[in-house]
Amino acid sequence: MRASLAKRPAEVAAMFDGIAHRYDLTNDVISLGQDRRWRRVTIDAVDAVPGERVLDLAAGTGTSSEPFDAAGVEVVPCDFSVGMLQVGKARRPDLPFTAGDAMRLPFADGVFDAVTISFGLRNVQDTSAALREMLRVTRPGGRLVVCEFSTPTWAPLRVVYSEYLMRALPPVARAVSKEPDAYVYLAESIREWPDQQALGRLVLEAGWGEVAYRHLSGGIVALHRAVRPLADG
After folding, report:
1. What pLDDT does 4 receive?
2. Given a cut of 50, is residue 172 above it in pLDDT?
């Protein structure tokens, strides 16, 4: 199935339920293996140490959470796709997979040292509401790291990238996934997503401080970092 760009939570969750079993494999194929590098850079940016508690939003099957666990960090994988969580829980029953909507997180205030979300923020219906919720559950001085598709900085690459998304990605997805329409939605959601500067402004407006970003793969992906101020307001 394919969700619409209105990003209704139930619709998007059902779409991800349908692609859960082959999601990690398909991501490897359509990103030409780059998604693994992007996730490693994200983990380094979170810079969590043993004893800290990290919320991994849009964790899906838990692929992004496992390195935190391996490093002795208390990680909570959270996603609103029950299908994704079930696949992850079957593979890693020791991890505390939690069902939750990024706009209404099922956690108390200030309970995480860091919050991270990779390739999931653009699928949330209200980006600003999600960023405010992430701020709420993060302790003062805690960190936010967002890894998301963005806008290539070099104009010729932007053209090639756009052509790949809309023309090459659907056929590739059909070859490796039983739900290729889901990847048409994903391509469209990437094309409609704010660029690096615009997302940075949304993070700042949500109450985060020390907002910065870096380009990955020429801006195909951007890594945004921020800190919850010690004193809000």
Report:
1. 43
2. yes
pLDDT digits (tens, 9 = 90+) for 101-140: 999 999 999 999 999 999 889 889 899 999 999 999 999 9
DSSP output for the chain: ----TT--HHHHHHHHHHHGGGHHHHHHHHTTTHHHHHHHHHHHHH---TT-EEEEET-TTTTTTHHHHHTT-EEEEEES-HHHHHHHHHH-TTS--EE-BTTB-SS-TT-EEEEEEES-GGGSS-HHHHHHHHHHHEEEEEEEEEEEE---SSHHHHHHHHHIIIIIHHHHHHHH-S-HHHHHHHHHHHHHS--HHHHHHHHHHTT-EEEEEEEEGGGTEEEEEEE--SS--
Average pLDDT, the chain: 84
Q: How far apart are CA 214 and CA 209, in angstroms?
A: 16
